[in-house]
C-alpha cells in the first residue's frame, strides 16, 4: 500500500501484540505520538511509533491521518505536557481531553497545538524539552509518579511499567530512550561501581538467564525509584533491590548506566 502516517488523537491508545481487543497490551501511544502505518486488517492497523520504533496493533479510530510533511515536522516536537495534573486541551468542538505527562503538543503556536487538521487549545503552560534541565528536575519528575499503579505496557500516570516510567521521565527532560528495559540498557555510559552512582543514573536488573527484565532511576547510592506493583522507592545495594514488604531481594542488579 501507499505509505501512510497518523497521529494519536486520544489521551492514551493501547498498542497490542495482535489485531484483537483480547491481545496483550505491549505499549501505549500518548496524545500527539506520530506513527508510520505498516499494515491494515479491517479496523486494526499495525503502526510504528516514530519516537522509539516500537510496533503494535491499534484501533484506527484512535488516529488522525497526517501527511508525510506533518510526520517529518512532528519529529521536531519539543513541547510536552508537564508533570502535573492539569494537562487539559480543548478541541474546536469544545470537547476536553485530559492528558498524561509527557504527551506531545505538536505544532504548538499561540496557545494551540495541531494534530492533522484539528486544532486544540492548550490550557496549561507547556514544558519545553529542549530547554536546559537539571538532575534535580529529573528527580522531581520521577517523584511525581510516586504511587502510580504498575501496568504492563503502560506509559501514563494511571498505569505504567518500569521501562515506560523511565522513558517518560527522561522524555520530560529532553532525552529519548528506547521503550523496553533491555533496549535502554544498550544506551548511555556504564557506571562501574555503585559508590560512583549519581542521582539520575539508571539501574538495570536481570533474571536467572541473564536477560534484562527491570529498570529504575537511582535517587542516591542506596535508594532507587522504580515501578514494581506501583512506582515506589526501595533500598538498593550491590545485590539489587531489597523489598522490605517481601523481606527479600526482589531484583538482581546487572548494570548501571548514565544518561546525563
How would the blueprint of this fold be written?
Blueprint (H helix, E strand, L loop, with lengths): L3 E5 L3 E5 L8 E6 L3 E8 L2 E6 L5 E5 L3 E4 L1 H6 L5 E2 L7 E4 L4 E3 L13 E4 L2 E5 L4 E2 L6 H10 L10 E2 L2 E2 L1 H10 L9 H4 L4 E2 L11 E5 L5 E9 L2 E6 L1 E6 L4 E4 L4 E11 L2
Antiparallel strand pairs: 1-4, 1-7, 2-3, 4-5, 5-6, 8-13, 9-10, 9-12, 11-12, 14-15, 16-22, 17-18, 17-22, 18-19, 19-20, 21-22
The helix-strand sequence is EEEEEEEHEEEEEEHEEHHEEEEEEE
Helical stretch count? 4
How many DSSP E strands?
A: 22
Q: Helicity range of the residues?
A: 10-25%
Just name the CATH architecture of the largest domain: Roll
CATH fold name of the largest domain, please? SH3 type barrels
CATH superfamily of the largest domain: SH3 Domains
Please mark out the parts with pLDDT under 50 across 5 or more consecutive residues, or reply none.
Answer: none
InterPro entries: NLP_P60_dom (IPR000064), Papain-like_cys_pep_sf (IPR038765), Peptidase_C40 (IPR051202), SH3-like_bac-type (IPR003646), SH3_16 (IPR041382)
Protein name: SH3 domain-containing protein
Family: Belongs to the peptidase C40 family.
Organism: Pedobacter gandavensis
